[in-house]
Amino acid sequence: MSKQPDMQTETEDEGDVSPEEYVALSDFTGAGSDQLTFSCGDRLLVHAKPSSEWWWAEVREVIGYAPASYLRERATDEEEEGEDDACPDDPWQDEEYFGSYGTLRLHLEMLSDKSRTEAYRQVILSNSASLRNKVVMDLGCGTGIISLFCAQLAEPSLVYAVEASSMADYTRQLVKQNGCEEVVTVLQARAEEVELPEQVDVLVSEWMGNCLLFEFMVESVLQARDCWLREGGVMWPSSAALTLVPCQAHSYYEEKMAFWERPYGLDFTPLQPLAQQEFFTKPKFSHLIEPADCLATPSDVILLDMYTLQVKDLEEIKGQFHFCVDKPGSFHGFTAWFTVHFDSLETGGATVELNTGPHAEPTHWKQTLFMLDKPVSVCVGDSISGTIALHRNPIWRRHMTVSLDWNIHSSTEATENCKANTLTLHYAT
Ligand code: 6LC
């Protein structure tokens, strides 16, 4: 373990602590002058680890921040010779991932989320007639709530409840306890490896992560669709949208950045660049934005069609935005959230929606906040346009980097920010 940089004196920094050697697992292009750009296989010297996501490192005598998840510790020369691939043992981190779903904490959080759970219940209820005699697969069933709704509110012929974690043992008991064992079959397996005796009419799953895609459980759903969904079968959810809005975030900015201006009457502003790197270069996942902090009308930037989306499409997903500021204020960042839609099994039947945005009931996903380096004051009529790109981490398959590239055009010449301001920000997860 290296020492935390904030515990070092300057002399220690230069003398005692020798940098650690790391190897780049993949290419990375830095955004802005304080992030490094490097190629797969490059050797980096890591000088400090100010946060778990971004390290202060050196490559070819250039110093800057590098995303920790792109680096692996360099083995000794002898070990290095024997290694020909840089892949970690488990890029999906399945042991840790399914381990956490083997305990109750996350299931309690998901089941306590009324908007989420009621949305799935509503989907089953409003399609109960059409679900009669249908075969359903519930992918990642957890405690089996969706399968139990199917069995109790409709009359499917069978529900295959697939769950990879050890929770599956309990799910089997819950199915029995609620008298649904004739209809619901619990299979403890990764969906990618499960063998079903037949194809299914409906593939239902609650796969959405923070900022929609984090965890990338959606890949398992797409693979199951291609293997097990019959021609003309239904996907629930059927589509998903990621929505973005430019916003104010006064209290978060105060808490993490303005704090350093005059704590206890002292000037701590030299710490602000560190604060920026530590707090603002990763998304803040558990943000709840007030509708009043939206500076423009939110806009859908990415739309996913669950029937046509392919696993390879997940590597890089891009969207565009063009916002017209309708409220003067401090532009602190962008907030993102998602909405999913469930098509009806009946033609012309009503669609069910699960919306995780600020105008709907809060969910356990909350919203995701991406902070800018510095706030920009904006006026009514200014326009903020740009692109968003979700880059799946080439090594750690459940992670992604979000890049926002934006510029502001001021509506009034008088505004100090009237020049176009283009900036790309990378947020690593
Ligand atoms: C749902 C996660 C549940 O789905 C959790 O119980 C986890 O163990 C299970 N799960 C995830 N991926 C798979 C898979 N490939 N095969 C079988 N079970 C799986 C909530 N998480 C999100 N909505 N993100």
TrEMBL record:
It is an enzyme of class 2 (transferase). Its EC number is 2.1.1.319. The keyword Hydrolase does not apply. The keyword Cytoplasm applies. Signal peptide: none annotated. One of its GO terms (molecular function) is histone methyltransferase activity. Residues 9-19 have a biased composition (Acidic residues). Residues 17-76 form the SH3 domain. It catalyses: L-arginyl-[protein] + 2 S-adenosyl-L-methionine = N(omega),N(omega)-dimethyl-L-arginyl-[protein] + 2 S-adenosyl-L-homocysteine + 2 H(+). PANTHER family: PROTEIN ARGININE N-METHYLTRANSFERASE, PROTEIN ARGININE N-METHYLTRANSFERASE 2. GO terms for biological process: methylation. This is Protein arginine N-methyltransferase 2. It is found in: Cytoplasm; Nucleus. One of its GO terms (cellular component) is cytoplasm. Keywords: Cytoplasm, Methyltransferase, Nucleus, S-adenosyl-L-methionine, SH3 domain, Transferase. It comes from the Eukaryota. Residues 1-21 are annotated as: Disordered.
